[in-house]
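hey can u run this one w/ heme C bound, need the structure tokens asap thx
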Amino acid sequence: MSEKEIDEVSGIETTGHEWDGIKELNNPLPRWWLWTFYGCIIWALGYTVLYPAWPLLSSATTGVLGYSSRADLAAKLVTAKAAQGDLLSRIETTEVADIVGNEELARFARAGGRSAFKVYCSQCHGTGAEGAAGYPNLNDDDWLWGGTVDQIYATISHGVRSTTDADTRFNEMPNFGTDALLTNTEIDTVAKQIASLSGIEGGVASPEGAQLFADNCAACHGDTGTGNAELGGPSLADPIWLYGGTLDAIKAQVQKPRHGMMPAWSTKLGDPTVKQLAVYVHGLGGGQ
Ligand code: HEC
Ligand code: HEC
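ok here u go:
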């Protein structure tokens, strides 16, 4: 049943549609809506003339502006490459400490360093550079070989105890136990002395322990045990340990020390990448 009639209440003609006694008034569309609608149609027609739009058999209409998103991307890539090439060559010629001081270069270097770190360093140091037993955490301000950006740069460039780089960081803790430089009792006493420095369970400070430390250990670990970055001697007075912070781990290291090894990277990755890695590592939070 569809029959047009005049609605009694509003005096407006109905469309003749009726659902369960509810009838639809035949109001004209609002003018603003209509004009917006026409505007959209005109804009769409203009768009399809100017830009690629209508699908053809094997391609599409190209549009009179000749725009192509592929060409646009290619152009952007060329500009980005050029900008990067410029920054890379500036990194190559800038001292690493000056890169840190230059906001634009530092930002670029940190981004490049972050991605290189994921590829070359995370196996040993962890994806977040948090380290693991035997592999130092690079986020904290505890450094074996020094935490200025120049020192970090030198460590990464030449490695630690590398067999292929003559300028490598090198120093080896003596085999106090296996080479019989100290007796077992002496090792026990000096280990307890060290353990006492950072409050490790079983640690006991004693005059004998202090003397043994001064005679045998202070040269590499510092007079107060806080380390010596020139020689890669870790601080023994803080709660950060490379090989474990228990009395047993300390004794084991004095008996027969381990010597951590890190590859030299400058020959493998090239100097600009090593500089970016140094800036990145320095910026992780512990840089000095
Ligand atoms: C094969 C494992 C390994 C890889 C890969 C590796 N490292 Fe290391 N790294 C070590 C070890 C082990 C040490 C500690 C050396 C020591 O005992 O003195 C170290 C030390 C360091 C230090 C000195 C930390 C300090 O406290 O002074 C820095 C900086 C460093 N690595 C950065 C890097 C960067 C950057 C990369 C990637 C290019 C990398 N490492 C890749 C094993 C590795
Ligand atoms: C010739 C230098 C040298 C002397 C002397 C020396 N050390 Fe070390 N020591 C080192 C180095 C270098 C390391 C770090 C080893 C590594 O990076 O793999 C180290 C590491 C350690 C560690 C492990 C630290 C950690 O974070 O796990 C302990 C403990 C330690 N030494 C105790 C001693 C004691 C005790 C003496 C004296 C009896 C001593 N050292 C004498 C160079 C030395």
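The two ends are 87 Å apart (CA to CA). anyway lmk if its weird
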